[in-house]
TrEMBL record:
Keywords: Transcription, Transcription regulation. Residues 11-82 form the Myb/SANT-like DNA-binding domain. It comes from Psylliodes chrysocephalus. InterPro entries: Myb_DNA-bind_5. Involved in transvection phenomena (= synapsis-dependent gene expression), where the synaptic pairing of chromosomes carrying genes with which zeste interacts influences the expression of these genes. Zeste binds to DNA and stimulates transcription from a nearby promoter. Self-associates forming complexes of several hundred monomers. GO terms for cellular component: nucleus. This is Regulatory protein zeste. It comes from the Eukaryota.
Length: 142
C-alpha cells in the first residue's frame, strides 16, 4: 500500500472548527478559485500554514493535499445535508421530525454561508416567455 494514500484518521471537532475558521478568514482559499492576486502558489502556502496548525491539534495528521481534500469533503457533505433538509421542508404530510443528526450545526451554517446560495441551490432564474402572434398580417399590394 502506498504510504501517500494511507488513512490518516478522522479529524477532531477542534480541527474542523479551526479549518472552518481559517477558511472564513481566507475566502479565496475556501472557494478554490484562482485569480491574478490569488495564485496556486499563494493557495499552497496557505494550505501549508493551516496544515501546521491542524496537525498541532489532537486528531488526524495529514499533509496539505489531504487537508485540501478534507475541506472539499466537508463542503460536499454540508451541501448534501442542506439539500436533504430543504427537501424535507417542502414535503407534504405530517411525518416524523427531522433526526437531530440531519440538522445544520453552527459549523455547517458557516460552511453554507461560505459556499453561497448559488452553489447550494443553483441558479433560480425565471424562464423567459416568448410571445407568438399567429395572425396573418394583410399582404400589401403595391
Amino acid at each position: 500500500m502506498n504510504s501517500e494514500k494511507r488513512k490518516t484518521g478522522s479529524i477532531s471537532q477542534d480541527q474542523k472548527k479551526e479549518l472552518i475558521q481559517f477558511m472564513e478568514q481566507n475566502p479565496d482559499l475556501g472557494s478554490g478559485k484562482f485569480t491574478k492576486k490569488f495564485t496556486f502558489k499563494t493557495g499552497q502556502e496557505l494550505w501549508m500554514q493551516i496544515t501546521q496548525i491542524l496537525n498541532s491539534l489532537p486528531g488526524a495528521k495529514k499533509d496539505w493535499r489531504q487537508w485540501r481534500k478534507t475541506w472539499a469533503d466537508i463542503k460536499v457533505y454540508t451541501k448534501k445535508k442542506n439539500a436533504l433538509i430543504k427537501n424535507y421542508r417542502v414535503t407534504t404530510g405530517g411525518g416524523p421530525t427531522l433526526p437531530i443528526d440531519k440538522i445544520l450545526t453552527t459549523e455547517d451554517e458557516k460552511v453554507v454561508s461560505m459556499i453561497g446560495p448559488l452553489l447550494i441551490d443553483g441558479l433560480d432564474v425565471e424562464e423567459p416567455s416568448a410571445m407568438f402572434n399567429f395572425e396573418q398580417e394583410p399582404e400589401e399590394n403595391s
